Amino acid sequence: MTPSLTPAPRDGVYHRACNLCEAICGLRLTVQGGQVTDVRGDPDDPLSRGHICPKGAALPDLHADPDRLTTPLRRDGDTWHPIAWDEALDLVARRLREVQAAHGADSVATFQGNPSVHNSGTLLTAGAFLKALGTRNRYSATSTDQLPHHYAAAEMFGHPLLLPIPDVDRTDFLLMLGANPLASNGSILTAPGMRERLRAIRERGGRVVLLDPRRTESAAHASEYHPIRPGSDALFLLALLHVILSEGLARPGRLAGFTDGLGDLPEVAAPYTPEAVEAATGVQAATTRELARAFARAPRAAAYGRIGLSVQAFGGLCQWLLNTLNLVTGNLDREGGAMFPRPAFDLLTGARAGQTHHGRWHSRVRGLPEFDGELPNAALAGEILTPGDGQICALVTVAGNPVLSTPGGQDLDRALSTLDFMVSIDPYLNETTRHAHVILPPATGLEVEHYDVIFHHFAVRTTARLNEPVFPIGADQRFDHQIFAGLTERLTGKRLATPGERLDAGLRHGPYRLSLDEVRAHPHGLDLGPMTPVLPARLLTASGRVQALPEPMRRDLGRLHATLHAPVPPLVLIGRRQLRSNNSWMHNTPRLMRGPDRCTLHLNPADAGGLRSGQRVQVTSRVGQVTVPVEITGDVMPGVASLPHGFGHARRGVRLQVAQAHAGVSLNDLTDPLLLDELTGNAVLNGTPIHIQPAPDPAGTAAD
Ligand SMILES: Nc1nc2c(c(=O)[nH]1)N[C@H]1C(S)=C(S)[C@@H](COP(=O)(O)OP(=O)(O)OC[C@H]3O[C@@H](n4cnc5c(=O)[nH]c(N)nc54)[C@H](O)[C@@H]3O)O[C@H]1N2
Ligand SMILES: Nc1nc2c(c(=O)[nH]1)N[C@H]1C(S)=C(S)[C@@H](COP(=O)(O)OP(=O)(O)OC[C@H]3O[C@@H](n4cnc5c(=O)[nH]c(N)nc54)[C@H](O)[C@@H]3O)O[C@H]1N2
Ligand code: SF4
Ligand SMILES: [Mo]
Q1: Ligand 2 center to residue 310 CA distance, Å?
Q2: What is the distance in A from the centroid of ligand 2 to the CA of 226?
Q3: Which of 221, 295, 464, 467 could bridge to 450 as Cys pair (CB 3.0-4.6 Å)?
Q4: pLDDT tens column, 245-281
């Protein structure tokens, strides 16, 4: 079916931020003859200062994409029929209520994916709809991403969003683990143009140290790079802490006046000498010792770790330890250290101590605890497939593609085909939404008015920017917020506040007492200055004090200690983000897919056996098997292989022509849903034990 043509934009120059990733770069778009003829970085954006990446330039392509859906679709067997919006919303509300009436409120599950935080309309309205459903089966990308950051923040500072952000523009020492901002453009670190920001640290005499199992694109812009064994970072961080504490290098300064638990840290770190962790981490003891001393002595230093430290078995401990390193060296809440942004729309306005909960309920099958109202998404397939009271019979997905993005994706793929009802609010017919009975496709990208509610909370500089739409929408299109308002009204009879009303109220009550109109009047963004210290006033712990050694972390150390002498699997698999990719989507954009296929397995020469680059290999894990071309490279350390996530588009019924031509395989057909960071419930997506063998020769001439 051909999508309806969306109306052409007016000619002119538009300024708005790219909403594809956390860098939120200001863009300058020129429209001539109804076409976007030029996209470049906006040099007047006070945060991004002209930065742009290839994805930002490809943003207008979404609108020309013939596979993008604009009208609701209803599935009848394998056939999709367009239906009218009112009919679609009525049908969805009725079916969800029917399932809940028959099987209970929790029989409907919800999954919210990554772009729902990149669209303020979705962010500010989806919650009310999900709440109206009243289900405890809520899932989101959080538990395959940054749950350990939130967990550590809640335990130490009292709120999941009190996330310390490395003040990269003023630091003298950036210690970075498991992050690749040159490919990802930064995460829980909104600092567009990290290449220049890293160069500036080096040019002012500072030091950038990177630890990663792979010599990444970011390694080239660091002062030094050290390989580290996947999943061993908590041991390494404890060894740093041990050196700092045992050599009298700790100087928490002002923070000591409102921090509990500092006195217990030396004993906790005692077993983890650099020598004791050397074998497990692969980092030489002398290196660890030198790094600890230099970090502690640097005038201003920040320790930062992202996905690589989060989607692993000790994610919660890693994020606690990073915060603790910053804390004991006096770098927390200090310029050039790790600081807490205070954005103009501040989600902490009105927050009270003790509101975050953990373990109030548990998943039915595996007994996994909720965190802040959500269950680990590694549990979702099992909850659908396991019969009994409380089984999930219906699913709502919002801006997510969990078949490709969650561990053991092929189980979920199978599970989704058994549901009584599924609805996806998503502009594409992809690996997940193909299982839906109804797809409600929202307007997206440059069509949407957007304010970055979330990412200003992670930004190295406080700015505020309202992004006006470039493309008008057609009469048959709807925004996410209209879809959620329509569904909520049908379920509750209540009208939802519009995103504009919510934004205006939030800005007025925020720390700068702005209004939406004031922000709108600054099309390049309003500059509100650098981060400033906010503790102890911003703390939301019950005690009103920082907790340096939360009890759940102390307890979890036993689990970590057991790994010190555990056998190391011969080969483990990690992920690989790529600049021209965006999780599981944007693979349908021809200009981003040019060049050789990128879904390849990187393997160190020491692990290659007789394999040659280009040869196809079977990769097998406990849960699955895929066949991919191999690339032999010294960039991954021995014993580690790497494969990008978000591919695997060859599934039947998917409507993504370009992506299907570069289908690749899904990394998450290999990741194991049984492996979790037991402390937080986050999925373990890196460090998966695998073995490889040459793929059988298609011509049948292979030895076996
Ligand atoms: N093995 C492995 N797995 C991973 C990761 C990894 O590093 N390794 N990374 C994890 C991380 S960090 C994340 S965040 C997740 C991401 O995984 P998901 O949260 O599942 O998100 P995406 O794969 O980005 O899929 C986004 C979906 O949103 C739709 N969409 C785009 N724009 C809009 C919009 O404006 N409105 C609506 N309603 N829908 C929209 C797209 O069509 C697409 O279907 O993957 C995780 N999975
Ligand atoms: N181009 C592009 N940009 C993106 C995305 C995308 O898909 N494409 N996704 C966006 C999203 S949703 C997110 S959450 C961010 C993520 O942002 P980042 O975390 O910066 O992204 P990654 O490139 O996955 O970096 C993680 C690094 O951890 C390393 N690693 C893996 N296992 C371990 C380990 O056990 N220990 C250590 N020390 N390192 C390890 C990997 O080799 C990798 O280099 O990126 C965002 N930006
Ligand atoms: S870095 Fe991120 S926000 Fe900036 S242009 Fe690229 S995708 Fe968009
Ligand atoms: Mo993410």
Answers
A1: 10
A2: 17
A3: 467
A4: 999 999 999 999 999 999 999 999 999 999 999 999 9
CATH of residue 272's domain is 3.40.228.10
Residue range 48-102, pLDDT digits in tens: 999 999 999 999 999 999 999 999 999 999 999 999 999 999 999 999 999 999 9
DSSP annotation of 455 reads G
What H or E segment, with its residue span, contains residue 243?
A: helix 233-246
Cα separation values, 120 from 448, 569, 586, Å? 9, 43, 20
Q: Is residue 20 domain-shared with residue 101, that is, in the same domain?
A: no
* Inter-residue contact 319 to 189 (CB < 8 Å): no
**pLDDT per residue as tens digits for the range 148-194:** 999 999 999 999 999 999 999 999 999 999 999 999 999 999 999 99
For residue 177, what is the enclosing H or E element?
Answer: strand 173-177
Residue 688 lies in a domain: yes
Question: Are 524 and 577 in a shared domain?
Answer: no
Question: Which mutation among 430, 478, 583, 626 tests ligand 1's pocket best, with the greatest number of atoms within 8 A of CB?
Answer: 583
Mutate to test the pocket of ligand 2, among 307, 317, 576 (most ligand atoms within 8 A of CB): 307
Which CATH number belongs to the domain containing residue 659 in this structure? Answer: 2.40.40.20
Question: How many domains is the chain built from?
Answer: 4
Point out the ligand 2 atom lying closest to the alpha carbon of residue 146: 14
pLDDT in tens, 583-602: 999 999 999 999 999 999 99
Check pocket membership of 21 for ligand 2, CB cut-off 6 A. Answer: yes
Q: Which domain holds residue 25?
A: 12-66+445-477+497-530
Measured distance CA(332)–CA(431) in Å, rounded: 43
Query: Same structural domain for residues 161 and 120?
Result: no
Expressed in angstroms and rounded, the spacing between residue 522 Cα and the centre of ligand 1 is 31
Q: Does 192 sit in the ligand 3 pocket, CB within 6 Å?
A: yes
